[in-house]
Amino acid sequence: MKGTVKWYDRVKGYGFLQTEDQKDIFVHRTGLDVPQTELETGQAVEFEIEMKEKGPVAIKVKKVV
User: Regarding beta strands 14-19 and 24-28, do their DSSP bridges make them parallel or antiparallel, or are they unpaired?
Assistant: First the structure.
């Protein structure tokens, strides 16, 4: 799935991505393809969605170059 970074807090290690159809998806640093990746607001990303107890979570998140 493709989307953009809505916001991401590097210190806390989480934020939200926005899908192409404008849905917000939670992302945690453990869901990043490369754990040290710096996500910036508005940046294009590709990811998969996994359903968790509290709702959908982005996994295998990587920057689109």
Answer: antiparallel
Domain ranges of the chain: 2-63
Other residues' Cβ atoms within 10 Å of the Cβ of residue 27: 25
pLDDT tens digits, one per residue of 1-48:
999 999 999 999 999 999 999 999 999 999 999 877 789 999 999 999
Task: Report the alpha-carbon distance of residue 50 to residue 42 in Å, rounded.
Answer: 22
- DSSP label at 31? G
In a 3-state reduction of DSSP, which class is residue 32? strand
Could you confirm whether domain 2-63 is CATH 2.40.50.140? yes
**Burial of residue 3 (number of CB atoms within 10 Å: 0-12, 13-18, 19+):** buried
